[in-house]
């Protein structure tokens, strides 16, 4: 028996080799990892949405896909046309307030702006402006790159969904090729990862629901208008673990400033801080541990380490990756989700 044949028959060694190859390829493609993960997430959610609807009504999958993606595009268009002008107007109001403060310093009673002015007079303002401009340019570039990744991922997931059957039939050809063992092992790992990711996504959905309820109640007590639309925005952002709650404070702060001035902004920041602490230290560990049967301590440590290693994406894929390795190492099998 040749070395190659022995290698093929040694399933454990063979799968270790295939997994190492996959990790190495992902490392080489790390600049595209955002688009890869977003495409996977969009496709995963779309597949489960279609399955969920078809469980109650026998609607053709193609019609569901076209309708759902068209609805998403419409909602994005509605949000951009309705809320972006509001944010621009409120930003202009804040800018005019600062300009008015400097033009009429003797008549201004805004204590916060006076404190900021006093601080700027004592600091190296020119250096800070240069550093701030550099950071702003960096953030704008990152935001533009993220926006492009989101658009491309959305388009890729759409094409995958409308050609799901053709994709499945074509992909099965690899399982019957001369190197079928390689693609069979890739399929094995992909199936395991999709299963663990599904468990975590279900947990994150419940976390998003709780976050939305808590934040919406607080907004109602403060006196915010248009609560239904704000609740939808908060829910969508809450699907991003931890970071989504922080991102939501940007538009909420603008709206709060236009509604009640700096006091409402402080209230919003306090609410976001409390919700963020509740998610990070209560909901995330508790829901994740209940869905993955991991101890809360392990879950919390994994979130900390994965965020340190992979940034914001680590908060999303950290638990799935850990449970994935637990499964393939036979440490703790994960209960499978319903197959698509």
From TrEMBL:
Q: Where in the cell is it found?
A: Membrane
Instruction: Give the CC-aspect GO terms.
Output: membrane
The protein's predominant localisation is membrane
Is this entry keyworded Membrane?
yes
Q: Which membrane topology term applies here?
A: Multi-pass membrane protein
- For this protein, the parts annotated as crossing the membrane are 16-47, 59-80, 143-162, 205-224, 230-253, 265-284, 296-329
Alphabetical GO biological process terms: transmembrane transport
Coiled-coil residues are none
The UniProt record lists the keyword Glycoprotein: no
Q: Which InterPro entries match?
A: AI-2E-like (IPR002549)
UniProt keyword terms in alphabetical order: Membrane, Transmembrane, Transmembrane helix
What domain of life does the UniProt record list for this protein's source?
Answer: Bacteria
Pfam families registered for this protein in UniProt:
AI-2E_transport
The entry sums up its family as follows: Belongs to the autoinducer-2 exporter (AI-2E) (TC 2.A.86) family.
From the Swiss-Prot or TrEMBL record, give the protein name.
Answer: AI-2E family transporter
**Organism of this sequence:** Enterococcus termitis
């Amino acid at each position: 028996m040749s070395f190659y044949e022995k290698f093929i028959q040694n399933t454990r060694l063979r799968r270790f080799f295939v997994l190492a190859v996959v990790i190495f390829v992902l490392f080489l493609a790390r600049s595209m990892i955002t688009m890869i993960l977003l495409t996977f997430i969009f496709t995963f959610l779309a597949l489960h949405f279609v399955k969920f609807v078809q469980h109650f009504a026998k609607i053709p999958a193609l019609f569901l896909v076209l309708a759902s993606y068209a609805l998403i595009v419409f909602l994005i268009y509605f949000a951009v046309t309705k809320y972006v002008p509001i944010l621009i107007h409120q930003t202009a109001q804040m800018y005019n307030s600062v300009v008015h403060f400097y033009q009429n310093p003797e008549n201004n009673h805004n204590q916060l702006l006076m404190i900021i002015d006093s601080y700027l007079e004592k600091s190296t303002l020119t250096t800070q402006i240069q550093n701030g401009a550099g950071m702003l340019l960096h953030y704008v570039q990152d935001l533009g790159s993220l926006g492009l990744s989101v658009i491309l991922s959305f388009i890729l997931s759409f094409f995958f969904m409308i050609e799901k059957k053709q994709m499945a039939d074509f992909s099965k050809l690899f399982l019957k090729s001369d190197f079928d063992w390689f693609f069979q092992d890739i399929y094995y790992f992909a199936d395991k990862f999709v299963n663990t990711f599904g468990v975590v996504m279900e947990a994150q959905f419940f976390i998003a629901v709780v976050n939305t309820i808590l934040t919406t109640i607080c907004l109602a007590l403060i006196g915010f208008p248009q609560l239904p639309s704000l609740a939808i925005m908060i829910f969508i952002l809450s699907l991003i673990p931890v970071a989504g709650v922080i991102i939501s404070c940007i538009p909420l702060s603008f709206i709060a400033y236009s509604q009640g001035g700096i006091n409402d902004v402080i209230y919003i920041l306090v609410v976001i801080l409390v919700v963020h602490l509740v998610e990070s230290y209560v909901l995330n560990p508790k829901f994740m541990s209940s869905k993955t049967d991991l101890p809360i301590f392990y879950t919390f440590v994994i979130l900390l380490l994965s965020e340190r290693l992979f940034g914001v994406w680590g908060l999303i894929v950290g638990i799935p990756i850990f449970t994935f390795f637990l499964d393939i190492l036979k440490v703790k099998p994960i209960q499978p989700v319903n197959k698509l």
